[in-house]
Amino acid sequence: MSRSTLSRKEKERVIRRLLIQAPPGEFVNAFDDLCLLIRDEKLMHHQGECAGHQHCQKYSVPLCIDGNPVLLSHHNVVGDYRFFDYQSKLSFKFDLLQNQLKDIQSHGIIRNETEYLRNVVLCALKLYVNDHYPTGNCNVLRKSVKNKEFLIACIEDHSYETRDCWNGLWKSKWIFQINPFLTQVTGRIFVQAHFFRAVNLHIEISKDLKESLEVVNQAQLALNFARLVEEQENIFQAAVLEELQELSNEALRKILRRDLPVTRTLIDWQRILSDLNLVMYPKLGYVIYSRSVLCNWII
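Structure tokens predicted for F-actin-capping protein subunit alpha (299 residues):
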């Protein structure tokens, strides 16, 4: 189907889907490439804004507000393409294409025991992230669901090396309810890598976890939670490294490469002539015969 036969709604759907599928760190590149194909600035700008908002939530895009890291996710969306930051108490829009905060507004929060616990958990999580991640970011959010209070801890670290033809992202999310005595922690660890030197290779690995955590007091809960995250992420990392170790160069070649029907190597014509005992015919016949030999040799 040609570009001209698509309806506007179909174009919007295709553009949005392609942009959302862009690997971490490559959204702007995908947008620029699509702009060259679509050639509709107004359409691309609108779809880029919509898809960029979803891309930020999907990959926990990090920002810095007042010197504090903020991770964007669907947990701190407050509607109308706006995000909310608990530390700065600000709501804002984020333009991923321009890498720019927009329409910043103050946003109040209720200061209660849960808010105090959120800050304590954030401090404990920062100590862990600073010790284990080169350029990691973390954030702890609050959420109320049916009068039940939850804390959502998010961790993100990435390395975008476009010049070296690879990009990689590590992120995890941990949720637990504010319960007395015992609470269940639900976690998800996600790793994505994209290699595009000589081969277009996408790797996605994830793991879902459920663990119980004893609640003694707020300080002890925060420390136990940070230890739990450290333990589970270390186990996950060791398992990933072990799996990748088994993918030897020979195995990768078998999976990623295919035997080509044409081998483009220099042809030793003298050896061919000698092996076939080729007799020099008149010029026209020699050319025809040589072409048949050449085709058979290549195939």
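The chain has a mean pLDDT of 81.
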